[in-house]
Amino acid sequence: MNVGGMFRPGMRGYFVPFAAGIALIVSAFLPWVVVGGVSVQGVPDVPALWVIGLGAVAAVLAVLSLITRKNSRHPLLIVGLTALGILFLSWRILPRTAGERALTISQAFAIVENTEMKEAPPALVGVGIYLGLVAASVLVAFGMTIVVKRVARPYTIPTADDDVE
Fold first, then answer.
1. What element of type H or E holds 33?
2. pLDDT tens by residue, 56-75
3. Which residue has the higher pLDDT, 58 or 153?
4. Is residue 146 a contact partner of residue 74, using CB atoms and an 8 Å limit?
5. 1 contacts 163 by C-beta, under 8 angstroms
6. Which pTM was predicted?
7. For residues 80 and 134, is the Cβ–Cβ distance under 8 A?
8. How many CB atoms lie within 10 A of CB 78?
């Protein structure tokens, strides 16, 4: 294996999906929803576990492409689209769900303490979902380059093995 081959002009671009895969993994550990100043990370929820898995797959595909000098833009496109779909749905659904949960808790405290019910604190989208959306969009954009460019030879022709003499 030639480590210098990883930095050849045609393969340096795969550091972009590698960084995007790592950013997807990191985004799952950041706050996804902020309810009244209290942040809720994505990790215990199933969508965040999927995002971690998809980020790991993207990073592994990028590293394998760097090592083997083979194209993996199609799988990266699929991984990016899946992660983008999960994060988009989380962006639309999770804040509303967390707000409803906070309202239910507020009502329960009002009943137990026999006091007037207070309004639930607002639920906002956290930085983790935004970072994940950007990383997934980068993966989709990188995967789409094979469709947009219409590369004449999307896969490299195998060369002689450098290890055998």
1. strand 31-35
2. 999 999 998 888 878 888 88
3. 58
4. yes
5. yes
6. 0.78
7. no
8. 15
What six digits make up the tokens of 161?
Answer: 């093995």
The DSSP 8-state label assigned to residue 40 in this structure reads E
| Cα gap 132→145, rounded to integer Å | 20
CA–CA gap between residue 73 and residue 14 (Å, rounded)? 9
Q: Which residues contact 40 (CB under 8 A, 6 or more apart)?
A: 31, 32, 33, 34, 98, 126
Amino acid at 26: V
Q: Answer for the pair 80, 136: CB distance below 8 angstroms, yes or no.
A: yes
Q: With a cut of 70, say whether residue 164 has pLDDT above it.
A: no
Domains of the chain plus CATH, in order, are 3-148 (1.20.140)
Asked if 40 and 34 touch (Cβ cutoff 8 Å), the reply is yes
